[in-house]
Amino acid sequence: MLSKYVPSVEWLKRYNGMDFKGDFIAGLIVAIMLIPQGMAYAMLAGLPPVIGLYASTIPLIIYAILGSSRQLAVGPVAMVSLLVFSGVSTLAEPGSDQFVSYALLLAFMVGVIQLVLGLFRLGFLVNFLSHAVISGFTSAAAIIIGLSQLKHLLGIELPKGANVFGLLYETMTKLGNINFYALLIGVLSIITLIIFKKYVPKIPGPLVVVVLSSLAVYYFNLDQQGLSIVGDVPQGVPSFSLPGFEWDSIISLLPVALTISFVGFMESVAVAKAIAAKEGYRINSNQELNGLGAANIVGSFFSAYPVTGGFSRSAVNYQAGARTPMAAIFTAVLIILTLLFLTDWFYYLPNTVLAAIIMVAVFQLIDVKEAKHLFKVKKIDGWTLIVTFAATLLTSIETGILVGIGFSLIVFIWRSAYPHIAELGYVEEEGIYRNLNRYPNAKTYDRTVIYRFDASLYFANIAFFEEQLAKKINEDTKKVILDFSAVNDMDAIALDELDRIIEEYDSRDVKIMIANMKGPIKDLVEKAGWAEKYEERISNLPVSRYVSK
Amino acid sequence: MLSKYVPSVEWLKRYNGMDFKGDFIAGLIVAIMLIPQGMAYAMLAGLPPVIGLYASTIPLIIYAILGSSRQLAVGPVAMVSLLVFSGVSTLAEPGSDQFVSYALLLAFMVGVIQLVLGLFRLGFLVNFLSHAVISGFTSAAAIIIGLSQLKHLLGIELPKGANVFGLLYETMTKLGNINFYALLIGVLSIITLIIFKKYVPKIPGPLVVVVLSSLAVYYFNLDQQGLSIVGDVPQGVPSFSLPGFEWDSIISLLPVALTISFVGFMESVAVAKAIAAKEGYRINSNQELNGLGAANIVGSFFSAYPVTGGFSRSAVNYQAGARTPMAAIFTAVLIILTLLFLTDWFYYLPNTVLAAIIMVAVFQLIDVKEAKHLFKVKKIDGWTLIVTFAATLLTSIETGILVGIGFSLIVFIWRSAYPHIAELGYVEEEGIYRNLNRYPNAKTYDRTVIYRFDASLYFANIAFFEEQLAKKINEDTKKVILDFSAVNDMDAIALDELDRIIEEYDSRDVKIMIANMKGPIKDLVEKAGWAEKYEERISNLPVSRYVSK
After folding, report:
1. Is the ipTM of this structure higher than 0.90?
2. CA B109 to CA A185: how far, in whole Å?
3. Which residue in chain B is spatially nearest to A422 when comparing CA positions?
4. How confident is the prediction for chain A on average, in pLDDT?
5. Where do the CATH 3.30.750.24 domains begin and end in chain A?
6. Of the candidates A315, A318, A328, which has an alpha carbon nearest to the alpha carbon of residue A27?
7. For residues B415-442, average pLDDT
C-alpha cells in the first residue's frame, strides 16, 4: 500500500553499491548541466537566475521520493519557463519581487492541479494529445523561445508580449543598437555548444562556455562596455515561506496554471515512458502526476518556480548511468552546495551566454522529419501538425495547444462520419467475402447486395450509411445483407434510425438482413426488442448463412 | 440545370386539377391556422403582431419556388421567435421601431448565412446534431417559451431576460396583480384548444378561440378592464424596404443569426425529411438551405422576421392534402388578402389568447417518452438528452445547443477511446473465432493469444490498446495474433506506435501477427514500408492461417 504511493520504498530496499556508483556520476553530470540551464530558464521565465537554482533543489528530492520514473530529471525546463513568462508578465513586471511571488503562487497551483488529477486518476487525459499535436506545438514553442532570447543575444531592448513577427520586426528596427560584445560572445557560445555537443559529447558544453565567458568578462571588464551580466546571486539555500494567496491572482493565473500542469505532465510522461520502455519497467501516469504535483507544491514553499521532467537532461541522466532516483538527490545536494558556496562565481556570467544555452537547447526540438513522415503516411495527420504549429506561432502557446487538440479530435470525428464502405462478393479461392472494388472477379448473387460499413454506427454517420446504402440498391434488389463485422458500437440514435430504415425497405419489398453482429451490438438490439421483431434476420453468423436463405 | 436550383420547374410542368384541389384546401386550412399563430409568434419574438403576418406572405412564396420539400409549411415558428427575442432584446426595447428594424436585419443575416451554407453544400453539418440533443433542447425550449407567455396569460409585467427560475419567482411575488379577465380567457382558451385538438381535429381551435374571445372583449368592453389587446393592426401589404445595415449591429447579431440559421434549418429539414420519406421523394438538404436562405433574404426586404419550416403546420398541411408547394402560395395569397381587408377584425383580440395558442403549441413538444426510451436502450444517450435539456434550461438556448453538441461528440470520442476488446477462441461447430468471455468452451492455442480490438486505432486509444494487450500476455506467450477485422481506420500516430509495440515484443521473443487487415489499412501500412519489414506476418487473411504457422 505504501509502496503504491511512495515508489521509493521499493528501490531503496534493494539499493546497492553498483547503484550508488552509477547514480553518483549521473547526478554530478546533471548538476553541472543544470546549473547554467537552471539560471538560463529562470531568465527565460522572467525571473532572477537564482530562482532557477532554487527550483533545482527541493522539487528534485520530492520527485525522487514520490515519482515512478527512475531516471527522469525534474527541474526547470524551457517550455514551462516560457509559459510562466507569458502567464505572469501580464500581471507584473518581469524580474520584480511581485513577479517572483506570482511565479511561486503559480508553482503551488500547478502542484495542486497535478496532485488532484493524479489522485482522481485522470492521467489518461494525456492520451488525447496526439503526437502530431505535441510535435507541431513543440516545434513552434521552440521557435518562440529561441526568438525570445534574441534581445539577450544582441544586447538590445525588445517589447515584451509581441508575437514572433512583431519581435522580428522590432529587432530589425533596432539593429543599430546592438551590443557588439553580447553578439560576439553569444555567437561564439552557440558555435562552441554545437561543436561540443557533436564532437566532444563527454564534456558538458554549457560548463565550458560559462567558465570561459565569465573569465573573459572579468579580465576585459566587458561589463563596463554595456554587456549585461548576471550580477549578484544571493548566497544560501531558500528558506521556507508560503506563496501569497490572493483570490484575484489565483483566478488570473488559473488558465496558465492549467496549461502548465498539462504541458509539463505531458513532456514529463513522454520522456519517462521512453526510458522506462528501454529499461523494461512501467510508468504509472497517475503516480507521475502525484510526484510532479508534490514536487511543485513543496517547491513553492522553498522559492521554486514550476518544474517538470525535461527531455534532454533526463536523456543525459540515463546515458550517464543513473539507475535510481538517488541520482536526482545527488544532483539536488550538489546544487545546494553550489548555492551555499559558489554563487560568487556567477557574478560575471553574461546573459548572452544563458541565451545561447537556451537557443541551442530548444532549436533541436524543431522536428521537420516528423512532419515529413506524417505527410508521407497519412496527409491529414501531417496537417494536424502544421495547423498546431501555425496556431501556436500565430496566437499563443495556450491557444495553440487547444487548437491542436480540437483539430485532431475533429479530424477523428470527420473520419468516422464518412467511413470506408464496401460492396462485397465471394472470393472462392479464399472462402472469404471481399470488397468488389479490390476483387472485381468475386462472385455476386442475383438480386442481392452485400454491404459492409466500416465504422461504428452513431448519430453523425447514420445519414451517410442510409445514403450510401440507397446508392447500392436498384429496382431489382430483393435482399440486402449487411456485414456488421466492422460495426464495433452503435448508439441509440443509430439504432432507431436503422430500425426505421429496415421497415422502410420492408415496405418496398427489400429484405435487410444483418450478419456478423458482434456481442455488444447483439445485446443492444435485443434490449430494443429486435430478437422478436426481426428473428432470424439478425445474428452473429457469417454472411454465407444469409446468401443461401 | 435550372431544375436543380429551382425545383418548382419540375412540379409546375406536371401540375393538374387533382393537385389544385388538394393544394387549395390545404392552403386554406394552413392560412386559418397561421393567422393567429403568426401574430402569436411575433408577440413571442417581441414584435408587433402584424410582423408575424408579413412573415407569412413573401417568404412562403419564395420557398415554394426554391425549396425541395413539397409539403413544408414555412413561416414564423416558436423556437426561432424565441431566439429573435433573446438576441434582439439585448439591443433594443421589445415592440419598438428599433427592435423591428433589428429583427429585419437579423432575417437578412440568417438568409445570407443559410444561402452560403447551401451554396457551399454544408447541409451535412446538421448530421452532427444527435437526435438526443435535438430532443433535449426542444423540450427545454418549449418550457422556456411556455413560461415566457405567463405574463400575458396572467396580465402582469415580468422582467425580461430572467431565466426560468427567475421568472417563476417573479411570478410568485406578483400574483396579487393578476388580471382576472386575462387569466380567465387564457385558461378557457387553453382548455378549448386542447379539447378541439383532441376531439374535433377537423375544426381549427385557434380560429375558434380568436373569434370567440374577440367578440367577448368587444361586447363586454373588457379592454377597459385592463385586459391587454392586440389593438390597431396596420392595413395593407408590406412595401419594399432595405434593412438598416450597421456594422456594429451585424456583429452583435451574428451569434444569434448563426444559431437561428442552424436551428431553423434543423427543424425544417427534420419535418421535411419525415414527410418526404412517407411520400417516397428525397429532400436535398443543400437545396433546402438555398430555399430557406432566399425566403429569409427576400422576406427581410418586405418586413418579415426570420422564418423556417414548422413542425405542426407542415403536418397539418400534409394531412389536409397538400400535394405541391402551390398550397403554400395559396396560404400566402390568403394572408395577403387578410392584410388588405381584415386587419380591423383583430383589434379586440386579447394577448392572453395568443399566449394560450403558443403555450398549447409548444407544450406538446416536450418529449418525455424519448428520454425514457433512450435510457432503456443506451443510458449514455439518455444522459446526452438530460444534459442538453438542463444546459438549455439553466443557461440559454444558444449555449444549451452548443453544450449538447459538445457533450454528444465527447461521448462518441470517449467510446472509441475505450472500446470493447476480446480474446478469441475457435468455435468448432461454427468454424468461427469468437470472444472467449461469451464462448468459454471455444478452443484456445498453446502459447498463443488471439486478440481483437473493436475500434479504429488512433492517437487517443493506442495507449489503451497497448495496455490491454499487455494484460492478455504472460511469460509463456510466444505468439499474438491480432484480429484486425474491426480496425476500420488507423492514423499515422497509431501506426508508428504499433510499429514500436511489435518491435518491443519482438525483442522479448513474442511474435505479433496481424490477420483480417482491411484494404485501406493494408494500403496504409504498405506506404509505411511494412510489407518488406513484416512480410507474411501481416495480411488480409483470416486468423486461421496464422494459428497453424
Report:
1. no
2. 60
3. B519
4. 90
5. 421-547
6. A328
7. 89
